[in-house]
Amino acid sequence: MAQVLSEMPSYTLIHVPSDFEVPSEQQLRTDLEKGDTKTKIQALKKTIQLILNGEKLPNLLMVIIRFVLPSQDHTLKKLLLIFWEICPKTYSDGKLMQEMILVCDAYRKDLQHPNEFIRGSTLRFLCKLKEPELLEPLMPTIRSCLEHRHSYVRRNAIMAIFTIFKNFDFLIPDAPELIANFLESEQDMSCKRNAFMMLIHADQDRALNYLSSCLEQVHNFGDILQLVIVELIYKVCLANPSERSRFIRCIYNLLNSSSASVRYEAAGTLVTLSTAPTAVKAVMSEVRQSLGEIPMVEDEMRKAAGDEPMPDESVTNTNAPTQQKLVTADGTYATQSAFSAPATGSGSSGGGKGDKKSDRPPLRGYLMDGDFFIAASIATILTKLCLRYTEAVGGRGGQGEAKKCNRFTGETMLVLASMLHLGRSGLPEKKITEDDADRICLCLKVLSEQSPEVAEVFQKDCRSALLGMIEARSEIEVEEKNAKKVAAAAAIQADSPIKFMQLSKGQEMSAAGDIFEMGLSQALGTAKKEGGADFSSSKLSKITQLTGFSDPVYAEAYVNVNQFDIVLDVLIVNQTTDTLQNCTLELATLGDLKLVERPQPVVLGPMDFCSIKANVKVTSTENGIIFGNIVYDCGNASSADRNVVVLNDVHIDIMDYIVPATCTDNEFRSMWAEFEWENKDYLQVLLKNTNMKSLTPQKALLGECGFMAANLYAKSIFGEDALANVSLEKNLQKPDSPVTGHIRIRAKSQGMALSLGDKINTSQKTRAKKPIVTAN
Fold first, then answer.
1. Which of 244, 260, 563, 712 has the most CB atoms less than 10 A away?
2. What GO MF terms are annotated (predicted)?
3. What DSSP element (H or E) covers 713?
């Protein structure tokens, strides 16, 4: 039974208010039986919330069928669809409940309801059913919904048929033929899109036959249908290259679509399927159109100064009627006459900024918002297009072809330089980052030199590297899934015995160690691994000598780091023959540390010792320093005489608060651009003592290469992020040459970045075996 429950599907999450009071089953039963419509709605909502929270209310099933199911209230019908989705429909042995026969009849009545939205909602609900016994009696009614007058019902009927055919094809084996016939006579674009998408996944040959029959009318279709057509053409041409000539003209026509999404997908598909110079020029033209007028800085400054006319000012006759085609609910066209109203003063003054933003081309809008990662991607794409165009045209020879290549290269470099100028002009909301600027400059250099080696890298090696990265990413995902399965299998079972400290034997307790510290470290995920622990991670490394052996008072401290506080267990030894009165441990902190309470004075006899504990609260991940002294009075001296022993400083290690963590590449780039604190260091040994995790796959770090780059990430127990980018270089021609490079560290606070840099510098000095060459 536990296995069955673990495989149950996860349903829609519904928010439960904080003041939600759990009602009794009897109260819900009374409200559902005798309450009015409002009371039934509230009771049904509470029932749904209880079932989603794991409560079992089997006695309410017949009550809902008898008193709520016959209701014609639309709100109740919507809630009932959610209830039927989440309530158990089978017994423990997997057989269908007898009560569900009555519910199935209610489904059939809702599918024949005169209200189109109830029909459509019921059809959407049927897509979620996993019981073929409930769906089989409804198939004739679902088929009849394909002939309904309202497009909302028809398109949901298509999706219901698609889902049922995908899950239980024996219920409707002729679904592809049925949808193909429906597609021939349908006029609504949303219905045609759903039907065409189903044919792509269910019967691709029928989808191709339909596309071939209407290939000349594709440019008149709606954008939602055009996007699906582009997807089909891409799949077919990729699997069967001989079909490219058949559909390439259709892709060319879609470059003139009024939808930016369709133009973008068509341009990407065109340059993927065709290497002809005309295809490359068409894609280049589309990218330039999406960027707007070049140079962009001058264009934006003219718009800001108001030198160019607004779109509505260029219209000479504002009172001329215009004809606009509208699509009605049943798929027919209606013609409407509209008069353009003159803009009012308030509207022109208040919405000027919004109008300028809406007038910008799509890609220009992203650049003006400061998203220059898109600019770097565009630069790479245009560089590859230019190299492909040069290879296709320049190989023919002749002076005319050379001029064409130079003209295309010059146009590409103008676009790249314009984006770089815009990023540094101060007009966008955010300035271009140095990484994106370096990428654009690299592309400009590649275009200016155009060496065959670099062209080979851009056109072939980059694609191979991308495929390798995708394969490595998929392997990492598989490994993570397997690791989760192993962790789940190793989890403590519900019937495993629980060890109680009070009931354990003395020998077991002495061998267990500090169970409180062990439990806390296991909960935080900071527990040390068994085996392989060096001296720096042992308990002896946590002991700090505070005074010298020749001092009258000897002191040493054991530093115990918990999650948000530090406990100093200080051992104080009186090495004199006098009694020390008012022996006080005075401490102070430097950094984001705070002393919780001051230790109380003690009296130490001759050669006596004691242990004093001091608590220090930690508020952020930075290296902190604890310093102070021991003050005492001698027994044979006057009360005015005081003796002071200065203590050595206690340095709090930042590594006690940092644990390896994982984030996506997009999150890494976003945080890298957000964090302002940066610290550069040079190193040979990577992240051995930094508790960071490499986000770069291991496959990307293998192989013989003179360069290495990796992204590192860690997270403190306070939720602070730490990022690092490692770049190393070694001359492969000289095996004994030193490793040169640097690591750039960024963190949310300056102290955390500096502390990590200090830690790396310290590890370099203690463990370096080869010289590290640093550049000034």
1. 712
2. structural molecule activity
3. strand 707-716
588 shares its domain with 676: no
Count of beta carbons in the 10 Å neighbourhood of residue 608? 15
CA 394, distance to chain mean position in Å, is 43
| 441-445 CB contacts, 8 Å cutoff, 24+ apart | 443/379, 443/380, 443/382, 443/383, 443/416, 444/413, 444/416, 444/417, 444/420
Distance separating alpha carbons of residues 155 and 160, to the nearest angstrom? 9
Phi-psi region of 748 (alpha: psi -120 to 50; beta: other; left: phi over 0): alpha
In this structure, are 680 and 568 located in the same domain? no
Cβ(476)–Cβ(694) below 8 Å: no
CB 373 within 8 A of CB 669: yes
- 612 lies in some domain: yes
Pairing type for strands 543-545 and 593-595 reads unpaired
Please give the backbone phi and psi of residue 433, each rounded to the nearest 5 degrees, phi first: -75, 160
- Are 547 and 540 a contacting pair, CB within 8 Å? no
> Do 395 and 423 have their domain in common?
yes
* Single-letter residue type at 711: N
* pLDDT tens digits for range 385-436: 888 888 877 665 566 678 888 888 888 899 899 988 988 888 888 888 888 8
Cα dihedral 585→590→593→597 (10° resolution): 20
DSSP string, 186-221: ---HHHHHHHHHHHHHH-HHHHHHHHHHTGGGGGGS
Note whether 561 and 641 are same-domain residues.
yes
Of the listed ranges 160-164, 252-256, 550-554, the least confidently predicted one is 252-256
For position 699, what pLDDT does the model report? Answer: 65
How many CB atoms lie under 10 A from the CB of residue 638?
7
Neighbours of 114 (CB within 10 A): 6
pTM score above 0.70:
no
d(CA 203, CA 198): 8
Distance CA 157, CA 347 (A): 44
DSSP state of 634: E
Place of tokens 């399927």: 273
Give CA–CA dist 201/156, Å, rounded: 17
Token reading at 278: 């005309």
